[in-house]
Amino acid sequence: MSRALFIRGAHDAYVAPFNLREGGPGEVLIDVGAVGLCGSDLHYFKDGGIGSAVVKEPFVPGHEFGGYLCEDLDELGLARGALVAVDPNKACGHCEFCERGHANLCPNVEFIGAPPFNGAMTERIWVPKSQIVPLPQQFSPLEAVMLEPLGVAIHAVDLAKPRLLEQVALIGCGPIGLLILQVLKAAGAGEILAVDPQEHRQAMAARMGASRTGEAVEDIREWTKREGAPLVIEATNSPLGFRDAVLATKIGGRIVLVGIPDGDTYTLPAAEARRRGLKIKFARRMGEVYPRAIELVAGGKVDVASMVTHQVGLDEAPDTFRNHADNAPGYIKSLIYPNGLPKQGG
Fold first, then answer.
1. Which residue, among 257, 290, 286, 293, has the nearest Cα to 91 in the 3D structure?
2. 61 contact partners, CB below 8 Å, separation of at least 6
3. Which of 241, 234, 240 is nearest to 258 (CA)?
4. Over the stretch 274-306, which tens digit does the pLDDT of each residue have?
5. Where would I find the Alcohol dehydrogenase-like C-terminal domain in this sequence (predicted)?
6. What is the model's pLDDT at position 286?
7. pLDDT band at residue 262, thresholds of 50, 70 and 90?
8. Which of 31, 42, 178, 198 has its CA 20 to 30 A from that of 333?
C-alpha cells in the first residue's frame, strides 16, 4: 500500500496509507519524483478550501510535480523510467472557453490536486497521458516540478504585456513573484521595484535582478515620487494585496493580480482604484506555456533552483506545511519527495 499526505481540513495535515485507485482508459502510472508545496496547497491547509474548492473529506494535494513513467509511452516516444512533468489542468476541451483557447478558465476542469481530485503528494499517481510533458534528458525532478509555477508566471506576464524597458512594480517575492521577476527581465522590462515583508525574500529578489527591494508598498510610492508605477503585478497571499497594488499604480496604469488572498477576500478602498482609471486583470493558472517554460529553464534564463530552500521526505511534509503557514524564517519554496530524498549530488 502507498502512503500520502492528506489534508482533512484547516490546519490538519497528516501522512497515512493510501489506496491507489485503478488506472482508467488513457491514463499512465508514474512514480512521483518530487512535488512542490504551492500557495494554493497552503490555502487548503490554512483555510480548508479556496472558493468553491472546499476540503469536504481527506484529500491528497499536490499539482506541481514530475515523476518517472512506469511503462513505455509509445505515442510520445518515451520509455519506461523517463522523467516527465505533468500538466495538472485537464480541461473539457469543448466548452466556449476551451474553444476560445482559454483552457485555464474551463468551468468543467478536472484539476489534479484540487478537491475533490487527489494530487501528487503520494508515491504513485495515475495521470492522463494527454497531460504528460516530455522533458530534456538533463532535467532533474526539481526542474520538472518548477515548470508549473513558472508557467503561472509566464501567463501573468503575458497578461501584463510589459513594454520594452517599462518600469514595473512587483508586490510579493514568494516563489511566483520571484519567477515573475525573472520572466519580466527575459521579456525586456526595465526597472523592477520589488517589495515583500520578509527580508530573506527581499534578498532573493535582489539576487535575481530586482532594481530595488523594500518591505512595503510605501517604498514603491517613495521610489516613484508618489506617482506609482505604470505596471504593477501582485503576487501575495494578503487580503490587502489588491489595495496595495492600487496604491502602487500610476494614474491610468495597469494591474495584474496573481495572488490568492487568505480568507478568499480582498479589502479595497474603491475610490483609490476608480480615480486612477486603472486597467485590472486577474490571472488564473496558465495557458499553453510549457514549451516556453522548458526553454527558459534549459537556456538558463530562469533560475528555478535557488528559490527552493527546503527539500523534505513525506514524513516531514506536515511540519513543512505548518512552517509555511507560520511564515517561518528562511522559507521560500519547499519540495516534497514522496519516494525519498535524492542522493547527494543527484
1. 286
2. 5, 7, 41, 44, 45, 113, 119, 121
3. 234
4. 999 999 999 998 878 999 999 999 999 999 999
5. 175-298
6. 86
7. confident
8. 31
